[in-house]
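so i finally got all the pieces together for this one. its two components total, 547 residues if u count the protein bits. some of the lines might not be protein, just check the labels. i wanna see the whole assembly predicted at once instead of chain by chain like last time, that was a mess tbh
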Amino acid sequence: MLTLLPPVAAALQEPFYLDLVRKVMIFAIAAASLNLILGYGGMVSFGHAAYLGIGGYAVGVLAFYGTTSGWVQWGVAIGASALVALAIGAVSIRTSGIYFIMITLAFTQMLYYLGISIEEYGGDDGMRIKARSDFSGLIDLGDPVAFYYLALVLMLACLFLVHRIANSRFGMVLRAAKSNEPRSRGIGFSPYAYRLVAFVIAGAMCGLAGAMFANHTSFITPEFMHWTRSGEIMFMVILGGIATTAGPLLGALVLLVVETLLAGWTEHWQAILGPLLVLSVLFFRRGLAGLMPGGKDG
Amino acid sequence: MAETLLVVRGLAKSFGALRATDGIDFEVREGETHAVIGPNGAGKTTFIKQLSGELRPDAGQVRFAGEDITALPAHRRSRKGLARSFQITSIYRDFSALDNVALAVQARAGHSFRFWRPAREDILLTQPARQALEKVGLGARADVLAANLAHGEQRQLEIALALATQPRLMLLDEPVAGMGSDESQRMIELLASLKGEKTVVLVEHDMDAVFSLADRISVLVYGRIIATGTPAEIRANAEVRAAYLGEDL
């Protein structure tokens, strides 16, 4: 269905839809990465937007210094996100429950204020990115349709990757530690290293989403890392259905479309979205994926 | 005489002024079923937690297969072959019975940093897991969610989990607790079928289970072992009778 959108949108002369769905797919990648640690790993990270920001700033800052190669920009985005996730994870994963939520939030707030404080890159005004990432002429991100298909392919790859990881031996250990940690220790697993590796994979994947998002908006701002953004990604995961393969896509789709519809209707859209979110959590406990036939996969 | 597998010397643990274990000396021989009994509050759970590594003793030493394991945490002891079942059923409730046991097999199969192949299709995991389920009589219940198993079945599943890690020593903390008489009879038969194959430390209140299964019995009272011997010796021991306040052993 998603593959057919570009020709349809072109026929209807509504490029806006292309833009919206591209954003949905980018956020589906971010949500899929969070789903790995939150849904399967039970790690309620309330700072996942940090990697969106790091990925975005990697593209923006490199472009600022004249490096427009997408290979370098996106590579740095992924690598830097993985490194930061390693550092944050190494500290946070020693805690659990509310402390884990708070410490991941705190780290992300640090990065947010770091973004605000660096005037060179626009401070809290953000910074325009003059040119999109350049993939040696292979894909032209300036072409909305090409960028759309790239986002589609990468999103499907990420959803599939998370699905494979979640069902691998590694994934089973991760899920077991969420289900019953003392039991895991009892049969000989120490969850720490497995959780940390999952945390790093999730950070790297969300860094990719950040690099894409910066190209999507052609703009970077500390708002990428704002805690409400972390909450938004988390909500996509929960709305779509935690620990499901398609949940992150469904959650991102519904949240962003509803957001856009309400925003077009009234400027007080957040006052309507909030209660809607509460109701959906109350009534779709297993998320949107739970409503679909075969959507309740492991 | 069989080789001694587990040697405990002077094991002590206090919680404030309470000496939960107060200098325990204890030995388990390879192949035997060694029961630990004692009145409520005697320190049995504290003792078994120090054997499994969940609690660090204040003093004393635990040697397993000739190696000092006093400082090892629970997951490392498990890897050395010390499996534990919990007093309160501890299983992965949201996993199927087969997935539960497959995970225990996986714990034995080296590191689990394997990210791609689906674990559920891995015959190296599922086959030994099915065998362990057969062994405990849950062969037909492999695909049932653990939470939906009957209480007795969950206890059997826990034994399967322990078995699947191929332990040299199984620490069973009240495996018969809270069971109906049919269920407990089945559990006793299951444990009897392990005799000779596995070395077992059995902490249990159910005296029928203890006296029908144990090769030797140690009696724990106020954090000390007051007697160790065959079931017949323990039955005849005056000190033990006094500790149980004349209850029929």
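Chain B is about 35% helix and 25% strand.
Chain B has two domains: 1-81+169-249, 91-166.
anyway lmk what u think
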